[in-house]
Design brief:
Blueprint (H helix, E strand, L loop, with lengths): L1 E3 L2 E3 L11 H5 L3 E6 L12 H15 L6 H12 L4 E6 L5 E6 L5 H7 L1 E5 L18 H12 L4 E5 L5 E4 L3 E6 L2 E5 L9 H12 L4 E4 L3 H4 L4 E6 L3 E9 L4 E3 L7 H12 L9
Parallel strand pairs: 6-7, 6-13, 10-11
Antiparallel strand pairs: 1-2, 1-5, 3-4, 4-5, 7-8, 9-10, 9-12, 12-13, 13-14
Length: 275
């Protein structure tokens, strides 16, 4: 079941024109929303942040503005059936909204961490990296390669071998007594959870830094994790590459700081809002 162009469709097939830019070029803007307590109003659902990201992307790309009330209606139809909602907007304003469940092994990954593969290519950053567009081929290829090598995530790098982001989220590293996240510099997605975590940590007087993750910086990391709106915080216990491998603790005390955000915000009073 999915929602497309103002209609709910009880099928798993979507018909689009053979010359549709979304098919030919991956021309779409999308966002992936985890629905907390079946509500768009829940603070961790962050509907307003997702709406703003889509709206800003559409404006920057000079695409037709969608019918936002219709988009919101489609999300509401699906949120009672799925834990995760993906909203995609096409250049002409059409909306395609689909749903899925949370990963079955999510709790295990949150507790026990995962293994990640460091992409070997000298430059593996996404096209239009600051936007969440349908052209995610670089990330998809990296993730599939990582899984074939026995890892659960891939870490993308730029032409100078600086670490950027994972194939599905933003990186966090602990060193020098605080958390650090890679600098944006137009090369990574300013993820919603990344932004919220940085602001929350700063508001609670918890140091958090943003730097370019050069190889020399990465060498001093004591703990590693990644975040996105679906999985929250996932520790990374092993980084494997063609020439070396590194391990990190999954019980590092600094991880409690990142997890505290979800505990605190999850208990916050729900406030109504409209986009």
């Amino acid at each position: 079941m999915f929602w497309y162009n103002g209609q709910i469709i009880a099928d798993n097939k979507l018909e689009i024109r053979s010359d549709d830019p979304a098919l030919l070029y991956g021309a779409s803007a999308f966002t992936t929303i985890r629905i907390y307590h079946d509500s768009l109003k829940h603070p961790l659902t962050s509907w307003l942040a997702h709406y703003h990201r889509l709206s800003q992307t559409i404006g920057a790309l000079e695409w037709e503005v969608p019918d936002w009330e219709r988009v919101k209606q489609g999300v509401k139809v699906l949120l009672s059936k799925y834990s995760v909602i993906r909203v995609a907007i096409f250049p002409d304003g059409r909306e395609f909204i689909s749903g899925r469940e949370l990963p079955e092994n999510l709790s295990s990954r949150q507790s026990n961490g995962i293994k990640a593969w460091l992409v070997e290519e000298s430059c593996s950053q996404r096209t239009l990296a600051v936007y969440k567009t349908g052209n995610y081929l670089t990330s998809w290829l990296a993730l599939n390669r990582a899984q074939k090598l026995g890892a659960q995530e891939a870490i993308l790098v730029d032409g100078q071998s600086n670490w950027l982001e994972t194939s599905t989220g933003n990186l966090w590293g602990w060193r020098d007594g605080q958390w650090w996240t890679p600098s944006l510099n137009g090369k990574i997605l300013p993820g919603i959870r990344r932004t919220q975590l940085r602001e929350w940590l700063s508001e609670h007087n918890i140091p958090v830094g943003e730097v370019i993750w050069e190889p020399s910086f990465v060498a001093g990391l004591e703990a590693l994790a990644y975040t996105n709106c679906v999985v929250e915080v996932i520790p990374i216990h092993t980084i494997s590459g063609s020439h070396s491998s590194s391990t990190y603790p999954v019980n590092h005390p600094g991880l409690a700081q990142l997890r505290s955000f979800f505990l605190t915000i999850g208990c916050a009073q729900v406030k109504p809002f409209m986009p």
